[in-house]
From TrEMBL:
The lineage of its organism: Bacteria, Pseudomonadati, Pseudomonadota, Gammaproteobacteria, Alteromonadales. Pfam families: ABC_tran. Residues 5-227 form the ABC transporter domain. This is ABC-2 type transport system ATP-binding protein. PANTHER family: ABC TRANSPORTER ATP-BINDING PROTEIN. PROSITE patterns: ABC_TRANSPORTER_1 (PS00211), ABC_TRANSPORTER_2 (PS50893). Keywords: ATP-binding, Nucleotide-binding, Transport. InterPro entries: AAA+_ATPase (IPR003593), ABC_transporter-like_ATP-bd (IPR003439), ABC_transporter-like_CS (IPR017871), ABC_transporter_ATP-binding (IPR050763), P-loop_NTPase (IPR027417). Coiled coil: none annotated. It comes from Ferrimonas sediminum.
Length: 294
């Protein structure tokens, strides 16, 4: 695999605040890379530097092995969270306007079709639903057939159905071989779409891997949860780790049968007990002490 974009020792300071603190990132061509982190972690600032919008204070960014040049803006697509467009433009007009900025835009009718906008192509853009609006912003970012697509919290504010539909659309964009760099607060979004994620906290990357590997590296395979008012004796084996997460006691383990026998043998009530696999939300809490969605 080729590294499409490579950032080294990237930093950005706003006054006293070191928003991004010497981070390194290498994003493989054709992959979907997710930046996750609590509010204020530095995700958007990182994205803006990689987009060429915000100049870093220090560090280097290489695209296809070369420093960013004027042609970079033609090779990337940015899905903005909102765009100030004149009210009188229809969906098709918005795409035509964006297409006019590029020397070789893609044909618009297939793009409308791909982003499921054909039926609303003649509607004024400000009449769109939240999901349709996100699909229009995505279509606008795809108008120049970019190699690299930037998405900053693409499904924030969408209802669960619209979010699922948007994920399906992004899977198709990914299948076309495009490289995607996204920020998200949704664990499920990262798990479904991202080949690799970096968790940012206070301007630094504190973990980076595929979602599955990150979870395997930090947890035993099963989580037994109990209401936190239960009193537990000391665990019998090193392969049980007990910690408190909000209103729950979490018991990480390899052998759920062994844990259940230990708990019932010690007279601990099993009422409200739940067994599940650890997920990115658990990882996030373990590493940053915050939840993904705040
Ligand atoms: N233009 C700016 N001027 C001053 N401070 C800024 C500016 N942009 C970001 N910051 C600060 O830099 C830090 C990182 O902000 P950034 O928006 O990159 O974080 P984030 O991880 O994207 O957060 P969120 O998830 O809330 O969008 C924050 O403390 C923020 O207040």
């Amino acid at each position: 695999m080729n590294t499409l974009i490579h950032a080294q020792a990237l930093s950005k300071r706003y006054g006293e605040k070191l928003a991004v603190d010497h981070i390194d990132l290498a994003i493989e061509q054709g992959s979907c890379f997710g930046l996750l982190g609590p509010n204020g972690a530095g995700k958007s600032t990182t994205l803006e530097m990689l987009e060429g919008i915000t100049p870093p204070d220090s560090g280097t960014i290489l695209f296809n092995g070369q420093p960013l040049s004027r042609s970079y803006q033609h090779a990337i697509g940015i899905q903005f969270q909102s765009t100030a467009l004149p009210d009188y433009l229809s969906v098709r007009d918005c795409l035509k306007l964006f297409a006019s900025f590029y020397p070789k835009p893609v044909p618009l009718e297939p793009l409308l079709e791909q982003c499921q906008l054909t039926e609303v192509a003649d509607q004024l853009h400000f009449h769109l639903s939240g999901g349709q609006r996100q699909r229009l912003l995505l279509a606008m970012s795809l108008v120049n057939d970019p190699q690299l697509l930037f998405l900053d919290e693409p499904t924030t504010g969408l209802d669960p159905n619209a979010r699922q539909a948007f994920w399906a659309l992004l899977q198709k964009v990914k299948a076309q071989g495009k490289t995607i760099l996204m920020t998200t607060h949704y664990m499920e979004e990262a798990e479904q779409l991202c080949d690799r994620i970096a968790i940012m906290d206070r301007g630094q990357i504190i973990a980076e891997q595929s979602p599955m590997t990150l979870i395997e590296d930090h947890f035993f395979p099963h989580l037994v949860s109990l209401p936190s008012d239960r009193r537990l004796p000391d665990p019998p084996a090193a392969e049980i780790r007990v910690h408190r997460q909000g209103p729950q006691l979490l018991l990480e383990c390899r052998d759920t049968d062994g844990v259940l026998k230990w708990l019932s043998g010690a007279g601990v009530s099993l009422q409200g007990l739940n067994i599940r696999q650890p997920n990115l939300e658990d990882l996030f809490l373990k590493l940053t002490g915050s939840t993904l969605q705040s």
